[in-house]
Specification:
heterodimer; A: 3-stranded mixed β-sheet; 10 helices; about 10% strand; B: mainly alpha; Serine Threonine Protein Phosphatase 5, Tetratricopeptide repeat; 3 domains; 3-stranded antiparallel β-sheet; 16 helices; elongated
Chain lengths: ~250, ~350
């Protein structure tokens, strides 16, 4: 089944900006709904795979492409990726209260929270762009957001929260709270944010959302945005930016 | 909009106490749970949608559906009232007024609910606020009249209800309430006039007919009162209003009965004597069976002032007039349990019959 025209337009845009093809394939065995591998080095194409039958697949693919559009909109010497060294993982484990947990698990937790940091902060920009420029994807976007909100709400359950150290929980929940508050405003339904407020996360979430307003909405400022969020969440020093290896 | 259910589970110990007013932050146990529940329910209303908030043990459970968003806070408040949940309805409408103080629908419905609950001073205050901004709100004047009447402030009630009638002469409820309060305050003629008009405008409302019947009965206009009671019975034969109408009909029947026959009615005396003879030597269960059959028939009304023999029983052969059956029933209950009040006094006829019966 062909992708939505808005998504196909985004594919063309990525191809124009990066000078590489976007190769789209269906993958019934894919564990996530959609994923993209950015062309590095001499790779001829960006490989985008999605699981067929996924509801909102056009939006999910567009969302992945949105990150690439922002990346390749920057001048070549300003393209960065978020990366984590072993030493930074150690720093992150200390900051997030993971030192007493099995090292492999703790490192994987740090990797995940850093991915969330990058995905949520820049993801707001991507989502806003899709909302403003791809009206044909709006319904799918709202469906996906509702699913994400429901998933985030489940993570507030006492049985889930007791499994993780508080600093890690706080960082994760503050980002989820920001997500609920921001989408609450956009969708005119503030109810999903109330549980986060009840647990005291409004202040930190407001701080994160303020940065979205204060920091220019340009792809080259994404690095500043991620750094700002990281500092607010206690994740400073847990990752670094490395130049995007693309020639 | 879809109707997706949402449910969030939180640990009560994770609740941020700074969300509560300072006076509630140190609460413990059930008081704390109650404060958290109220706080979250209000948060959801403020977030443009109601939710079910349950705080139990050490858990907070919040449930809501998307569809609740389609209605305004005022509409949701009114829905709660319609469903009989006055607590939630009043809280929701208070919130609506907090957000939009001149909200006429919220003011009106909240005032009505408070009036129903007996919070009359606040109800009157809200209605006066409403009517200051909306002096042509006829239903507002009716509600104000009712609230004043409940305060026993008849003069203010009459003034408000007269205004309601002036604003909307076609509103039956205005006439009904004005008629009732006028009658109560002594102006029966005007009261009956408005109640008659109310029955024209609300022909299916049994309470209006009952009001008219009671007022007419007080005014000794018994024939028309009886007709009004019959209307109540045709609309609400088994409900409380129907029972009250039945009682009214019995009273009228008795008044008419006495007016026609003096202290001891010969026909009733004769029927009572016949009943005593019939029950002579009969076992109590048999007497009871006959008496209860008549009592059952009586729930649908026995016309004691019509001599026509139009009633039949299963337990006794033949046809009977209403008064004849009533006398049999009266005698039967005197023999079974004299403490039972049938609502119709035949004691004089019964005493005379008993005296004769004993003489043989």
């Amino acid at each position: 089944m062909p992708l939505h025209p808005d998504t196909q337009q985004l594919i063309k845009k990525v191809e124009e900006l990066s000078g590489r093809m976007v190769h789209v394939t269906e993958d019934p065995d894919l564990k996530v709904m959609a994923t993209i591998s950015t062309a590095l080095g001499s790779a001829p194409a960006h490989f985008l795979r999605y699981r067929p039958g996924t509801r909102a697949v056009d939006y999910l693919v567009a969302y992945q492409l949105g990150f690439l559009v922002r990346l390749f909109s920057c001048p070549a010497d300003e393209r960065y990726e978020v990366s984590t060294s072993p030493a930074e993982q150690e720093t992150g484990m200390g900051a997030m209260g993971l030192n007493d947990l099995p090292p492999d698990f703790a490192r994987s937790m740090i990797d995940q929270i850093v991915i969330q940091l990058r995905t949520y902060s820049v993801g707001f920009r991507v989502d806003q762009w899709i909302r403003d420029n791809c009206p044909g994807l709006r319904e799918q976007q709202e469906h996906a957001v509702q699913s994400q909100l429901a998933e985030n709400a489940q993570s507030l359950a006492p049985d889930v929260r007791k499994r993780f150290p508080k600093p890690l929980l706080d960082a994760n929940t503050a980002m989820n709270a920001a997500y609920a508050m921001a989408w609450g405003e956009i969708l005119g339904d503030r109810r999903p944010a109330i549980a986060f407020k009840a647990l005291g996360y409004t202040g930190k979430a407001t701080e994160l959302l303020a940065m979205l307003k204060d920091i220019p909405n340009t792809p080259s400022a994404d690095r500043t945005l991620i750094e700002g969020w990281a500092k607010a969440l206690g994740l400073g020093g847990s990752f670094h930016f490395q130049p995007h290896l693309f020639s | 909009m879809s109707d997706n259910p949402h449910e969030v589970l939180l640990a009560l110990e994770d609740f941020d106490r700074t969300q509560l007013p300072e006076s509630q932050r140190e609460l413990q146990g059930d008081e704390f749970r109650s404060a958290v529940q109220d706080h979250l329910a209000a948060e959801f209303l403020d977030g443009m949608g109601a939710a079910e908030v349950v705080v139990t043990g050490n858990r907070i459970i919040i449930r809501w559906t998307d569809s609740a968003l389609t209605k305004s806070v005022t509409e949701r408040g009114i829905d709660y009232l319609k469903a009989g949940d006055y607590g939630k309805g009043i809280a929701t409408l208070r919130l609506a007024i907090q957000r939009d103080p001149p909200d006429a629908a919220a003011l009106f419905n909240l005032a009505m609910a408070l009036s129903d609950r007996g919070d009359l001073d606040e109800s009157v205050e809200l209605l006066e606020r409403l009517l200051k901004d909306h002096p042509s709100h006829a239903h507002g004047w009716v509600a104000l009249g009712v609230a004043h009447a409940r305060q026993n402030n008849d003069a203010a009630a009459i003034e408000a209800l007269r205004m309601a009638v002036r604003l909307n002469p076609q509103d039956g409820y205005s006439h009904k309430n004005l008629g009732a309060i006028l009658s109560k305050s002594g102006d029966r003629t005007q009261g009956i006039k408005h109640l008659r008009r109310a029955t024209e405008l609300l022909p299916s409302d049994p309470a209006t007919w009952l009001n008219l019947g009671l007022t007419l009965e007080d005014a000794d206009e018994l024939d028309e009162a009886d007709e009004a009671y019959l209307q109540v019975l045709s609309i609400d034969p088994t409900g409380q209003l129907g029972q009250r109408a039945e009682k009214g009909r019995s009273q009228i029947a008795e008044k008419t009965f006495r007016a026609r026959g003096g202290d001891v009615r010969p026909d009733a005396f004769s029927y009572c004597l016949g009943a005593l003879q019939r029950f002579e030597g009969m076992a109590k269960p048999e007497i009871q069976k006959i008496s209860f059959e008549i009592a059952m028939l009586g729930t649908r009304g026995l016309d004691v002032n019509d001599p026509e023999q139009k009633y039949k029983l299963n337990s006794i052969p033949g046809k009977f007039s209403g008064l004849h059956l009533l006398c049999i029933e009266y005698v039967g209950f005197q023999l079974i349990d004299p403490s039972i009040d049938l609502g119709f006094d035949l004691s004089a006829e019964y005493a005379e019959a008993l005296r004769m019966h004993k003489k043989g």
